[in-house]
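>> received
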Amino acid sequence: MDEQLLASIPFLNFDVNAFLDLAGADPFTAMGYLILHGGWIIFVFLFLWMVKYGWLEYRQNKWIAAREWILLRITVPKASEYNQQTPRGVENMMANFAGAHSPPSWKEEWIDGQVQMPISLEIASIEGQVSYYVHSLRALRDLVEAAVYAVYPDADIDAVEDYTLPIPANFPSDEWDLWGTEMTNVAPDPFPLKTYPEFEDKITGEIKDPVANMLEVFSRLGPGEQAWYQILIIPTDQKNFKKRAEQVINKIKGIKEVKKRTMMDDVLDLPLKTLTTFSDVALGNAAPEKKKSDPKEAFPRMMALSPGERFVLEAIERKAGKIGFESKIRFLYVGKKGKLSKPKVVNSFIGAIKQTNTFNMQALKPETKHVGINGTLWWFKDRRNSERKGKLVRAYRKRNASVGLKPYFLCSEELATLWHFPILMQVKAPQLRRTEAKKAEPPANIPFG
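>> returned
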């Protein structure tokens, strides 16, 4: 009876030699034999996997479509004690934005389709008029405004129409052209960028504003030219990043990574352990002595680290200790046909970003292999670049973090270096949008202790 039951289970009655003989003679017959003798299980699992994630994507798209969004233009004050703040104030803003993190429950994720949405930090120049923007869910407007007013009480915040709408979403276009890209990280994301404290003069305390050059170039755009700079930040619990950072830190220290065993590992090892134990008892073999750990091997490289390696280790640990976000950086230079001047704008933007690069840690560079516009493509260059242009515009307009490159982790200090309000004594861009005077007093009912 038991033999008949086992024989009725196809994958337990699979003849490997017969399959190999068929594969050598007729691959199609061999494939049929594989499917009839248990191979169909693979297709069942594949189908269930497709149904599972297809359902999740459907619910998420429906949930996202029902959200309301808002684009806030933030105008910095021209004459105020607050306009001389360093990027440290914007770093505090980033920490407040982390309050948007709202991990969904099982029901919210798989039934409602709830997903963590990004906040978009933007700087845009429309024909030389430079403005700062924050794009978010309308429900987060109070959080965004409170974070800005906490640092810049004199700031002017207005809800405005999306400045990207006049640009076509498909290319080629008879009127418009563009160059665009996403910035990718060169090293694993636990390695930090050069941040604003390193731009500070140790004697005078003056910060050489890393975005000053970019703002200057943005302000020089003429009629028919636009430049869009976008940083998407996705609030996260940082658990995955901390694991990646710990792996890099342990590698520098020379600590061997110990893989944590799972329940599946124990289940698979149980028959082997049982057989080994039975063999040892039957043959009278003594159990091998466990190797004692040598305390001297706990940190084998720590004493031999060079000053540069110690600096890198401290920088990674510093980044891992800060609030941060999964991030994505996009840049688009848009213009009427015949108006684009790539050397003037694109090269200046990349140069401004490269101020945060270091050779021994992290660096950002434009990605042109899969996402960005690439003039060196061999096959169907114009058509492929046109498709990329349309995809970049649509992704930028929707503030979509899932299109393009995979997001990478940037801490609040890095983000404040890459996107902050100008230190006005250093930025002389004539068309930078500023308020001339304080628009209104802060609310009188703010409690004070």
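>> The chain has 13 helices and ten strands.
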